[in-house]
Design a protein that fits this description.
The complex is a heterodimer of chains A (297) and B (196). By secondary structure, chain A is mainly alpha-helical. Chain A is built from ten helices and three strands, in the order ααααααααββααβ. The longest helix of chain A is centred in the middle third of the chain and has 28 residues. Chain B has 196 residues and is mainly α. Classes of the chains: A mainly alpha (297), B mainly alpha (196). Chains A and B meet through helix 2, helix 3 and helix 8 of A and helix 2, helix 3 and helix 8 of B.
């Protein structure tokens, strides 16, 4: 017979609780399905592409963010609401709801690692198979910009899980995670698509998932969209932190003056990073040299 | 018939069903303003309708009502009729072609009907296996699954499952396959009794 002993307070106790939540997430069928789908779709794409190199690499983090990130929203929301049926019993145990919420934030760890593995696979395959010389990639873009675009995938996966925790805490009704998933897709789409081809495309960067690369244009070029991907990555991380703090805010006892200052400081940081992302980096959309094999129009 | 209506009025989780239908209508309104984004917004309308169908079999008192003399088969058959509501929303949206998007109506009615049949059948199978609220998990999963094929567009040479302006035969075949799967799920779920 095994026993589970979790210290009631302190860092060791929190670490143990976080470990439990991370393992629950890593075993959740919906999350696992998302991870498998991300790699299967990427594998299919790589296997069926007719070119020797990997085309449109900076667009491919979208697949990981979509499949792993959005399934993480569903899985984390389910894990967050799973204890609601026993909320009266749980409320009598040592520790607060905010502490349990902070432990639930560890559901983001498996999501982040899965997204990171996806990006690593992408880089390794692109290095092994190569990319067409005019592509926006290492050599045509500063390294930090390429890495920032690639790392948007794991950060989006992390954010998906944390949004799931936020949804589970504040919207405990049936279908809340479905609503969050659809809202995330619609907001990300409508928040940026109308701006992409305008002179103010950098102001699209308020959305939780912004694209920096259009894929192939009809004339064989590719467009790198304006904005600073490094600062945008920081903005995404600030949104992740806000999601955790927002979920903890649900516990009235957690709303101490110090916590309120932390929330305000994080929100201000997010605003500053958004302003940096929109006002620095590439000021205009830039087209690559045409890739002859991709000309369709 | 009156007994069925009485049961449906009290037994169905109308709030999530109607909320999803309202979300579908709202997404269709977005389509009026951004018809050039129909490639994503139309699947979003479908995702909301599919979410509504996923909630049709939610019943907190399932362990009790499943063993009443009237039988679980009667209950499941009655609930399947509620799928007509999201199906009607979908049919109207496709018929009205918001934003003058050139949907090929028969094809888009087929893909919506096939999706809703599969979702309702899956929820009914879950209900048969005594899952009280299949919609809580099924709705977000089908919402995601309905939009997922959009990510294939542009990546693969085989095109899109949501074609606008034309409805190729291979796409029709794919959706007929989905419809057949849905019909099979419904046939399994609507047999009398509980659990296979």
């Amino acid at each position: 017979m095994s026993s589970l002993s979790v210290p009631a307070s302190g860092l060791a106790g929190h670490r143990a609780m976080a470990g439990i939540e991370a393992r629950r997430m890593a075993r959740h069928p919906v999350f696992l399905l998302g991870v498998v789908l991300a790699f299967v779709v990427l594998g299919l794409f790589l296997a069926t592409t007719k070119e020797a190199g990997v085309p449109d690499v900076p667009t491919l983090p979208l697949l990981g963010a979509f499949y792993i990130g959005l399934t993480s929203v569903i899985a984390a929301a389910r894990l967050t609401t799973a204890t609601d049926v026993a909320v009266e019993a749980v409320a009598t145990t040592p520790g607060t709801e905010a502490r349990r919420t902070l432990a639930l934030a560890a559901t983001g760890i498996p999501a982040f690692l899965a997204g990171l593995a996806y990006s690593v696979v992408l880089v390794v395959v692109a290095q092994l198979r190569g990319v067409a010389p005019p592509e926006w990639w290492f050599g045509t873009l500063p390294d930090w910009q390429v890495w920032s675009i690639l790392l948007m995938c794991p950060v989006a996966c992390l954010g998906g899980a944390l949004l799931g925790v936020l949804t589970g805490r504040w919207l405990p009704f049936r279908g809340a995670s479905a609503m969050a998933v659809v809202a995330l897709i619609v907001v990300s789409l409508l928040g940026q698509a109308p701006l992409l081809e305008t002179s103010s495309s950098e102001w699209r960067l308020w959305v939780p998932w912004a694209i920096f690369h259009t894929g192939d244009n009809a004339d064989g070029t590719q467009t790198l969209i304006a904005g600073n991907p490094g600062a945008y990555l920081g903005y995404m991380l600030a949104l992740c932190a806000l999601a955790v703090l927002g979920a903890m805010w649900h516990d009235r006892t957690a709303r101490t003056p110090g916590f309120r200052v932390l929330v305000a400081a994080t929100a201000a940081t997010a605003l500053v990073l958004f302003a940096l992302a929109a006002t620095t980096g590439n000021h205009d959309n830039r087209d690559s040299d045409p890739i002859p094999s991709r000309v369709t129009g | 018939m009156n007994a069925r209506l009485w049961y449906l009025r009290r037994g169905v989780a109308w709030l999530p069903v109607l909320a999803c239908c309202a979300a579908a209508a709202a997404a269709a309104l977005l389509l009026v303003h951004w018809p050039n984004l129909a490639g994503v917004l139309a699947p979003t309308v479908l995702a909301c309708c599919a979410g509504a169908a996923a909630f049709v079999y939610d019943e907190d008192g399932l362990p009790v009502v499943a063993v009443t003399p009237r039988g679980a088969g009667w209950r499941r058959t009655a609930r399947l009729g509620v799928t007509l509501l999201p199906l009607s929303v979908w049919a109207v949206v496709v018929a009205l072609r918001p934003g003058d998007v050139t949907f090929v109506r028969p094809g888009w009615w087929l893909l919506g009907g096939a999706t809703l049949l599969l979702v309702a059948g899956s929820a009914a199978v879950a209900s048969r296996r005594l899952v009280q609220t299949p919609g809580a998990l099924l709705a977000p999963v089908v919402a995601l699954a309905a939009v997922a094929p959009v990510t294939f567009a542009g990546l693969f040479s085989w095109g899109t499952l949501y074609p606008i302006g034309d409805f190729p035969d291979p796409v029709r075949t794919a959706w007929l396959g989905v419809a057949l799967s849905g019909a099979a799920a419904c046939a399994v779920a609507l047999r009398p009794g509980l659990r296979p």
